[in-house]
Design goal:
The complex is a heterodimer.
Chain A (H helix, E strand, L loop, with lengths): L12 H16 L2 H4 L5 E7 L4 H17 L3 E7 L5 H11 L5 E3 L3 H9 L7 H7 L22 E2 L7 E5 H6 L9 H11 L15 H13 L16 H12 L13 H9 L5 E4 L2 H9 L7 E5 L17 E3 L7 H10 L3 H9 L10 H4 L2 H4 L2 H5 L1 H12 L17 H7 L1 H11 L4 H17 L1
Parallel strand pairs in A: 1-2, 1-3
Antiparallel strand pairs in A: 3-8, 4-8, 5-6, 5-7
Chain B lengths: L1 H51 L2 E4 L4 E4 L3 H7 L2 H33 L5 H7 L2 H4 L2 H12 L5 H8 L15 H26 L4 H9 L4 H29 L3 H6 L11 H11 L3 H30 L1
Antiparallel strand pairs in B: 1-2
Helix pairs in contact in B: 1-13, 3-8, 3-10, 8-10, 10-13, 12-13
The chains are: A alpha/beta, B mainly alpha.
Chain lengths: ~450, ~300
């Protein structure tokens, strides 16, 4: 029952000659010119598909198509909760998109380890390796030394968002730095139809990703640096205890919350604090301008001041599936996505949410002059620096090896189930943690 | 003379046999497309699923290795399978019962001479025709803890102090899923029952009235027995469809909280696309089919016995 389609395609003599001819032509031509050789349709998938972002994508597509008359690009929106299943089906059927953007780096690493992703070194070279912020591509370096993709942006996904007006009303003079301070602040701001926080307790990837942050904020880790499962630890127990104590400060529906619900809860003013990336800025300005002057953000508090903040950066990526039949055209398009005019438009479709990875864009007046970036300059700067030092399950710390199973661990829902069992169901912590550790060990061995 | 008639009889038999053979061949030829299509869309996928269930397969690459019946052993020894099966049965029985009760009730109402009967008959089909995704989105907004109309009305009326978590708490989540399922699919029962109601002879009701039967007695002694055959079919079809329902439950609760509303189809999806274990997912699908088959055989036998 082995399908080696992605590894050893059936190569006929005619096919090989054709491939050689196409490959030679592609190598001799810059990416932009290659596409003119034949009619091609590129399928582009991304889970970032807000209307403003889709508009920016359309702009980039139109520009690219104008320069490459032989290529048509079709954008297809995916979702944060659905992309894993969609890609699994796409890979197994061979009907893959030609380019995928905004997936977390750990998912790309998982796919690359199975031979499903095309190396990306030449695209990074075409974009300009020196223009990336230092270390921006480290997370995309595979154990074989090749790059599996690159970042299309940075994100600081677990910033603590605060309402200055509510803090003032509650007599809170400074942003919480520790969990105790956060709980006390949320408690004192809760009331009058406003809840303290919109933490997710749903059976979804947000709960898993956010809770991984809490484990680190307690000083723990999910894996040791050499990737042994280390989730069954006193730090995880403390994280579960704190996370459980926050339940009564969250809306009743938080047991079903994912990214969208959590964001809306803060933006609409239903919660006094929020946990999200920079999309809060644009959404508040557009949907609830009455609180636009009152919001700010800080890095999420930790168990004590001795533990450094741990920012979750999913390192939104660009990569090309190995099964794509139009790899060269896809590479040309991938490089074109970083063209300043279109890239800035894309970043400003959700200002502060996806942060630039190129130095030339970060200092570009066109980017800096955006009203939201200007108004919330301090917040954007903080998110940028937090994201630059951020981590995720594929890259838990600078000491950790790259974890190619990170995507599968998140997709399995094992960590979200742990949270639900302990916090919502009141299960025995030891038993739940032991089961979770076993599940993750099983995934690591598979 | 005898020889001649014998020869003629033999010749006639031979002709008959040739004709029978030709008819038999024609029959085979005519039935062949059906058999081929049936094999392509039913037999092949079925055998393929059973075959895949004997392997451990990584979904994105379809690479795998032979594991024999290990998937079945693992599956049957997992508590998650038994919980999911229990949830599956609760969901199926719960939603099916409500569909039948609401469906018959509404069909009886729409069978009466009421104002705007035609309009009402059309509108009643609305939940059945609407896309499940749209229906779920609407219900999720109705159930929403912060902005949902249900919580808002109940709080305004002073019935509750805090919003109810309809989808993230048990037993609320299961009750909500069952209710939404009943709302979505009861029009199917209405259509089928209404059609049968219109063909019940009025003489039966007149005779019952003459015998002194009231409205309730007429329903139980005339209407219900007349609906028996159509209800047997409805229950069988809806039980099969509800047992394998995926989208409505997945979109409403995702199987949560924890695995409280997780049914077997959700387990198949989880194994195939979240855990990337296509072999195990096939094993779940095969077991699901076996369970459905078992219940259907029992159901059909019981209803036949009652009819006899």
């Amino acid at each position: 029952m082995t399908n080696s389609r992605s590894k050893t395609p059936n190569l006929t003599r005619r096919g090989a000659l054709k491939g050689l001819a196409v490959g030679t032509a592609a190598a001799a031509l810059p990416f932009g010119a290659f596409a003119q050789q034949k009619q091609i349709t590129l399928r582009w998938w991304s889970p970032q598909g807000s209307p403003a972002q889709v508009e920016a994508y359309k702009f980039q597509i139109a520009k690219f198509e104008a320069l490459n008359p032989g290529i048509k690009v079709v954008f297809e929106a995916s979702s944060d909760e659905g992309y894993a299943a969609q890609l699994a089906a796409a890979f197994s059927s061979g009907q893959v998109p030609d380019i995928v953007t905004h997936l977390p780096s750990f998912s790309v690493a998982s796919y690359y380890s199975k031979g499903l992703v095309e190396p990306f070194d030449d695209v990074i070279k075409a974009i300009g390796a020196d223009d990336f912020y230092p270390g921006a591509n480290d997370v995309f370096k595979a154990p074989d030394g090749r790059y599996i993709g690159t970042g299309i942006g940075n994100s600081a996904a677990n910033m603590l968002w605060l309402r200055k007006d509510l803090m003032q009303k509650a007599g809170i003079t400074k942003a919480p730095e520790t969990w105790d301070e956060l709980r006390a602040a949320a408690q004192s701001m809760q009331g009058g139809g406003i809840y303290g926080a919109p933490l997710p307790y749903g059976r979804n990837s947000m709960t898993s990703l956010v809770f991984i942050g809490f484990i680190h904020q307690a000083g723990g880790q999910v894996f040791t640096p050499d990737l042994q499962v280390a989730i069954d630890s006193p730090e995880t127990r403390k994280a579960l205890e704190f996370y459980g104590s926050m339940r009564k400060l969250c809306p009743p529906g938080a047991a079903n919350y994912s990214w969208g619900e959590s964001l809306t809860a803060f933006v609409s003013g239903a919660t006094a604090t929020g946990l999200y990336a920079g999309r809060v800025l644009a959404n508040v300005v557009k949907q609830n301008p009455s609180i636009a002057d009152q919001i700010t953000c800080v890095t999420y508090p930790t168990i004590s001041k001795d533990v450094a903040p741990w920012t979750f950066n999913d390192f939104p990526s660009v990569f090309i599936p190995a099964q794509s039949k139009n790899k060269e055209a896809a590479k040309a398009f991938a490089a074109f996505l970083f063209n300043p005019e279109g890239y800035i438009k894309q970043l400003l479709a959700a200002p502060g949410h996806v942060l630039p990875v190129l130095k030339s864009i970060g200092s570009n007046p066109q980017y800096l002059e955006d009203p939201i970036i200007k108004k919330y300059n301090a917040e954007v700067q903080l998110m940028s620096s937090a994201a630059a030092g951020g981590f995720n399950l594929g890259y838990e710390s600078k000491k950790h090896k790259s974890n190619a199973k990170g995507g599968e661990v998140v997709a399995s829902g094992a960590i979200a189930t742990l949270v639900q069992r302990v916090v919502l169901n009141g299960d025995n912590v030891d038993a739940a943690l032991s089961d979770t550790a076993k599940t993750i060990e099983g995934i690591m061995k598979s | 003379m005898t020889t001649l008639s014998q020869a003629s009889s033999v010749s006639m038999r031979a002709e008959q046999t040739r004709l029978e053979r030709r008819y038999a061949h024609l029959g085979l030829l005519l039935i062949a497309p059906t058999v081929l299509i049936f094999s392509a869309v039913i037999v092949y996928p079925l055998i393929s699923a059973i075959y895949m269930s004997l392997f451990s397969i990584f979904t994105p690459t379809l690479e795998g290795k032979w594991v024999g019946v290990d998937n079945y052993v693992q599956l049957l020894s997992a508590s998650e399978f038994w919980w999911s099966l229990l949830n599956n049965l609760i969901w199926t029985v719960g939603t099916l019962t409500l569909q039948i009760v609401f469906g018959i009730g509404m069909a009886l109402v729409l069978h009466q001479n009421i104002w705007f009967r035609s309009l009402a008959r059309s509108l009643i089909l609305f939940p059945y025709f609407i896309s499940t995704v749209v229906a779920v989105l609407v219900w999720k907004w109705l159930f929403n803890d912060l902005y949902g109309i249900l919580n808002h009305l109940m709080m305004s009326a002073g019935l509750i102090d805090m919003p109810i978590d309809y989808l993230g708490d048990m037993p609320n989540a299961m009750i909500s899923v069952i209710l939404v399922g009943a709302w979505k699919y009861f029009p199917f029962v209405v259509i089928a029952v209404l059609a049968r109601l219109q063909s019940i002879p009025d003489q039966l009701y007149e005779a019952a009235k003459i015998d002194g039967a009231g409205a309730v007695a007429r329903f139980f002694d005339v209407t219900l027995p007349q609906l028996r055959e159509v209800l047997v079919v409805i229950v069988m079809l809806r039980a099969i469809w509800d047992f394998k329902e995926f989208d409505l439950i997945f979109l409403l609760t995702g199987g949560g909280p924890i695995i409280s509303t997780q049914t077997l189809p959700l387990m198949v999806y989880k194994e195939a696309f979240a855990l990337n274990q296509l072999g195990m997912a096939s094993a779940y699908a095969v077991v699901m089919m076996a369970i459905m088959l078992f219940f259907m055989i029992v159901y059909i036998r019981k209803t036949r016995e009652k009819s006899a």
